Amino acid sequence: xxxxxxxxxxxxxxxxxxxxxxxxxxxxxxxxxxxxxxxxxxxxxxxxxxxxxxxxxxxxxxxxxxxxxxxxxxxxxxxxxxxxxxxxxxxxxxxxxxxxxxxxxxxxxxxxxxxxxxxxxxxxxxxxxxxxxxxxxxxxxxxxxxxxxxxxxxxxxxxxxxxxxxxxxxxxxxxxxxxxxxxxxxxxxxxxxxxxxxxxxxxxxxxxxxxxxxxxxxxxxxxxxxxxxxxxxxxxxxxxxxxxxxxxxxxxxxxxxxxxxxxxxxxxxxxxxxxxxxxxxxxxxxxxxxxxxxxxxxxxxxxxxxxxxxxxxxxxxxxxxxxxxxxxxxxxxxxxxxxxxxxxxxxxxxxxxxxxxxxxxxxxxxxxxxxxxxxxxxxxxxxxxxxxxxxxxxxxxxxxxxxxxxxxxxxxxxxxxxxxxxxxxxxxxxxxxxxxxxxxxxxxxxxxxxxxxxxxxxxxxxxxxxxxxxx
Length: 471
Known about the structure:
- By secondary structure, this protein is of the alpha+beta class.
- The chain has 18 helices and 13 strands.
- It has helices spanning 7-16, 21-28, 32-39, 47-56, 61-65, 69-80, 92-101, 103-135, 156-166, 172-185, 192-201, 237-252, 254-262, 269-288, 291-300, 305-312, 316-323, 369-372; strands spanning 2-3, 45-46, 206-209, 220-223, 228-231, 327-328, 331-332, 337-342, 347-352, 381-386, 392-402, 412-421, 443-444.
- The strands form four sheets. It has a six-stranded mixed sheet with strand order 9-8-12-11-10-13.
- The radius of gyration is 24 Å and the shape is globular.
């Protein structure tokens, strides 16, 4: 048996791991020239080679066959939903073909569209400045960079989101590094902060708790010259533990963090710096919630988020994020998606292992329970959601307050949503008392208005791309 048109997938997986064609060909037992022909779809991929590739990349066979096509095609469809393309006869079949056959070109289009959006936003800002000047309204202070000097590229956070999604939010290298650190230090649940302070002290690094030495609004700062870690004194214990563990990662594993970001295709230094911080946070989560111990507890407690937080001394959002990283082959947790939004609907964190699609360039569907969570702060909201294509998801959401700096300090509220395919819902405590077969309370939701063709939705704000607007 041989499979055609998988060359782009092979090439993408190889590049994601910073392997040369020569190195991968050696591991597969074929010649570099033959691998080059496979990557350019000039030779089919045999079943034997596909099995070897799946083992080499630690991927499930089905996952490899459909690596990123669906998500990339979904991003492209959202891009083409812009009114800019209304005069072009674009359809989902052509978009999927582009994503499958030329993923590099598809990603280049996403980058170009991101730059276009940035330029359009700058133009709007410029128009606002001109209007302010005409009306005599005070403009921005001097020293603000000219709009034409602002970078016209994708936001670093978007590049990081794509990187995390490509790796399915699982980094075996960081899991191993965290497990090694916990074992070497003999870290126990009740003495984690003291253990990390002792480890830092053995290297001549002091930990100072207080606002002195911290920029305004900062939670943590490391002064390498004076070998001193500053932590804010108004942090709850679980946040303080997390911040110190992340700093340990930056001090202990700089080479590993740099190797991971360099191998991810994050070329911009600002994006790489953000990538190191994100990966350090991953290390912190793996340190405070060790993989197998946490997975066993999640199964025993049926993914009760609050009980997991109590058991490991971690926050609600930390628990949610850690659950999405349980993708170790042979020891996987429930494939979950996670989203974090603010009151204005801005998506500041997103990841999907469940298969659900998130809006990338436009607003999300207001029917998602992550938005209704703001109506009942602190309470878990449960929702069964049906997407336009028919997939059904089981979702829970709850608000998470931010800030603890006293009466005059700003206190913000965000909502965190977590969910899975309906077939996994029985494994979660939140499904108790719900008939998962009848699905009478299913809520029809979409990705974004432009990609949803449901008629009669009272919350629609834009016409569907697939339905002609009738006035």
